[in-house]
Amino acid sequence: MKLKSVHHIAVICADYEKSKFFYTNILGFTIIREIFRADRDSYKLDLALNNVFTIELFSFPNPPARPSQPESCGLRHLAFAVEDIEVAIQDLKSKGVDCEVIRIDQYTQKRFTFFADPDGLPLELYEDVS
């Protein structure tokens, strides 16, 4: 088997409209398709970043909370590459999103920070200057 790439990341949210707003209006993802699955009382929202299908956002009735703090076993966080971390942080702050202080990756010397989606899912900005 030879993997080609990561196809998508699935995220289950507690408040569909709040998360839909966050991922589209705050982070800038575009909607590919939105489907309401009546048999599951669930939405499935396919989102793209720079025209590449990236995230499936799901809603389900009463999903159990996922502990983010303390860190738990499983997916740790999603990381997004940015060219200028300070500009990205200012953009998030202007939209009411708090970010942690900028840290330096001890192995790559690249700058990064964390913030959270409406459900507390840890998200990372990682400065990737070409």
In the CATH hierarchy, what is the class of the largest domain?
Alpha Beta
Structure classification: alpha/beta
Number of strands: 8
Residues in helices, as a percent range: 10-25%
Query: Kindly state the mean pLDDT as a whole number?
Result: 92
H and E string: EHEEEEHEEE
Major β-sheet profile: 4 strands, mixed
- End-to-end separation in angstroms reads 31 Å
What would a concise description of this structure say?
With 130 residues, the protein is α/β, with parallel strands linked by helices. The chain folds into two domains: 1-62, 2,3-Dihydroxybiphenyl 1,2-Dioxygenase, domain 1 (Roll), CATH 3.10.180; 77-130, 2,3-Dihydroxybiphenyl 1,2-Dioxygenase, domain 1, CATH 3.10.180.10. The chain has two helices and eight strands, in the order βαββββαβββ.
Describe it for me?
With 130 residues, the protein is of the alpha/beta class. It has 2 domains: 1-62, 2,3-Dihydroxybiphenyl 1,2-Dioxygenase, domain 1 (Roll); 77-130, 2,3-Dihydroxybiphenyl 1,2-Dioxygenase, domain 1, CATH 3.10.180. The chain is built from 2 helices and 8 strands. The protein has helices at residues 16-26, 85-94; strands spanning 9-13, 30-37, 42-49, 52-59, 78-82, 103-104, 111-116, 122-127. The protein has a 4-stranded mixed β-sheet, covered by helices on one side. A 4-stranded mixed β-sheet has the order 5-8-7-6, covered by helices on one side. The chain is globular and about 50 Å long. The two termini are 31 Å apart.
